[in-house]
Write a structure and sequence with these properties.
Rossmann fold, seven-stranded mixed β-sheet, alpha/beta
Amino acid sequence: MVYVLLGDGFEESEAIVPVDLLRRGGVEVKLVGVNGRQVVSSHGIAVTCECLLGEVAEEELEMLVLPGGLGGVEAIQGSEAALGLIQRAWDRGGYLAAICAAPTILARLGILDRREAVCYPGMEDQMLSAVVRPGQAVVTDGRLITGEAAGSAFDFGLKLVETLRGAEAAQQVCQGVHYHHYQG
């Protein structure tokens, strides 16, 4: 199961595009409300989450996805329950995926120490000891997948499909949505 953490102010494309691509790839995904079931994006789009933080079935957690958007990142950063879930997912061997401003959460938790990652341009100083790869759409380092920004949402989502279901599944999703730029 993939869980996507959403707080008010999340970036729409960084959440919804990967969810859509994962579901097209046959991956079960649930949206998780950090502060409530109804969450409002950075551009005023209301989304109803399938569950709340306390309802996450951690024993089924395969991957945790953290979209960017400064408000959403602040909501996650301000939630001890969300930070605890991220740390437990990592400690239990799950994948962590973060895009745009969200990799800074992983950096603050020490998860990105000396690991390769990417983040929103201009936030590199908040990545602490991570090895930042500016200009890359997506960077993978073991069980960590990071994406640069909203413009990387398709590449990020397809990398998540590839990670969980393989390159062939990612290519099938890519062809199904007629996305011609994925390098895999």
